[in-house]
User: Which sequence fits this backbone?
């Protein structure tokens, strides 16, 4: 698998979960324990009963998905996507553990199951953006050819 494949597959994945977040049968009522308070409660629930989501969170998933799919067009853009994704989603995972920040300051839920999902996808993106990319020339020809030597 390459950075381009990861960008494409993660993009499709995030578009899919963004769409599923709008399907009432896929989002369950929040559990009885109190969740952190959200300013945006529209569409609030748990996707697959595991991942807290709301309207804004679904829109972010759709945007990240479109970003991934469009970044898959060239090796250079896919690698930049993987690097930015790894950094952003690592930070989001850490935020999900902090009181107050776990709801992106009341806008969207990033706590609970989202922390592990964000950390896992960030780790995979880091592999394709920082580790596997070593030795690949993404210079002016943008074909991703290996550097000789």
Assistant:
């Amino acid at each position: 698998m390459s950075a381009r494949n990861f960008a494409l597959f993660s993009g499709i994945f995030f578009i899919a979960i963004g769409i599923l977040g709008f399907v009432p049968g896929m989002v369950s009522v929040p559990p009885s324990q109190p969740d952190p308070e959200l300013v945006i409660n529209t569409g609030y629930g748990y996707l697959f009963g595991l991942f807290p989501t709301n309207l804004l969170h679904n829109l972010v998933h759709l945007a990240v998905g479109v970003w991934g799919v469009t970044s898959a067009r060239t090796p250079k853009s896919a690698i930049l996507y993987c690097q930015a994704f790894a950094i952003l989603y690592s930070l989001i995972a850490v935020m999900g553990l902090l009181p107050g920040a776990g709801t992106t300051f009341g806008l969207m839920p990033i706590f609970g199951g989202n922390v592990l999902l964000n950390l896992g996808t960030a780790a995979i993106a880091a592999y394709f953006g920082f580790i596997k990319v070593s030795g690949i020339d993404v210079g002016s020809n943008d074909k991703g050819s290996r550097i000789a030597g």
Q: What stands out?
A: The radius of gyration is 17 Å. The helical segments are 3-20, 55-71, 75-95, 113-131. The first helix runs from residue 3 to 20.
